[in-house]
Amino acid sequence: MKNPGWFEKIAGSLRSIAGKHTDLTPASPDIFGLTTTGKRPANEDSILIVSTDAYHLIAVADGLGGHAAGDYASNMAIRILEKEVTSAFHDKMEIPEIKAMLRDIYTKIHEAIEEESTGERKGMGTTLVSAIIRNKEAVIGNTGDSRAYLVHEKVVQLTKDHSVVQSLIDEEIITEEQAINHPLKNLLSSSLGGASFQVDLYHAKLVPGRMLLLCSDGFSGYMGVEEMVSAAIMPSAEEIVRRLVQSALENGSEDNVSVVAYRS
């Protein structure tokens, strides 16, 4: 049994954002996001949900560089992302144009974080996985090791981690099993504001019943495929997310845990 103080710390540190168009048809998307401090002293993750008539925007950012810097960097990334998408998006955009827009926005965020990385915030950075969803199609951008998954009867990881261990896996130097406890598992090869920066872009179709899930590594590192598939059948995105976050904590996550789910 967990001690009461630990539970109160978790419950007291929850920040959630829910977005749901109640004025749409019953087939309208169900979206919910939750971020928790977990066993860490502070929460350096940030999440975003924006719903408009033209699109839905969801994101998870995991800050780097210590509490003061990490929290600032992840919030900065989320704020700039929301502002720039709101300004640049128009409903006639094709998928390649949305990808190009996201690439430009990620570059702007990277440069903005670099510019403010001074004093106590020197060396700060953040991961950022985001999705712009329109007409049951999603364009996903990713830098770092936060992830995007498609979940239905199986789990498909859409993004590839920008990490040292992922590079070692790609080069067949280590296996995925060896990567789990590798001493370099938390070392990123790319981040917003970091010495090395790249953004990967993806396109996914969201058929009815299929869930798009964005998360930080405090979730993905402690969650099995079976648990994700089992949770995905729950009635609402809120129930799914709350179940998954609690499961990650019960499975031993000692990091901040953040999850945003979109289900059409």
UniProtKB/TrEMBL annotation:
<protein>
    <submittedName>
        <fullName>Serine/threonine-protein phosphatase</fullName>
    </submittedName>
</protein>
<feature type="domain" description="PPM-type phosphatase">
    <location>
        <begin position="31"/>
        <end position="264"/>
    </location>
</feature>
<dbReference type="InterPro" id="IPR001932">
    <property type="entry name" value="PPM-type_phosphatase-like_dom"/>
</dbReference>
<dbReference type="InterPro" id="IPR036457">
    <property type="entry name" value="PPM-type-like_dom_sf"/>
</dbReference>
<dbReference type="Pfam" id="PF13672">
    <property type="entry name" value="PP2C_2"/>
</dbReference>
<dbReference type="InterPro" id="IPR015655">
    <property type="entry name" value="PP2C"/>
</dbReference>
